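cron nightly-structures :: item 1 of 1
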Amino acid sequence: MNKKRRILTIVALALFSAIILFHYVRWTVITWPWTEMRDVTTDDISIERIQGNKVTILSDRFKRDYPSGYSLWLYKAKIEGPLRFDVGRPAIKDIRMPLFVLAVFYAGLFFILGEQNARN
């Protein structure tokens, strides 16, 4: 095996290992506190509170009409999200495509970097 192929093989093995490692190791993801001002429905308020966000109603209920004839009753609200730690989530969720693409590139480069002299 020539030197270029040996280096390519070592790099490919390192990348295969990294992809598999990032799939199986669970990471802690930090979501920093955030604040958002927007119009919300009563369903939105319920969903935000279920997700652990603080919802502060800033106005009385008002009606918004849309050109299609549809209308909604909305509230102006301030939504605050807390600091969250999401543990147990892989960094790379689906590894099938990254591994397949890496294998195809590896095979192609291995073939291109092969010995150029004719075989007898």
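cron nightly-structures :: done
Residues 61 and 75 are 5 Å apart (CA to CA).
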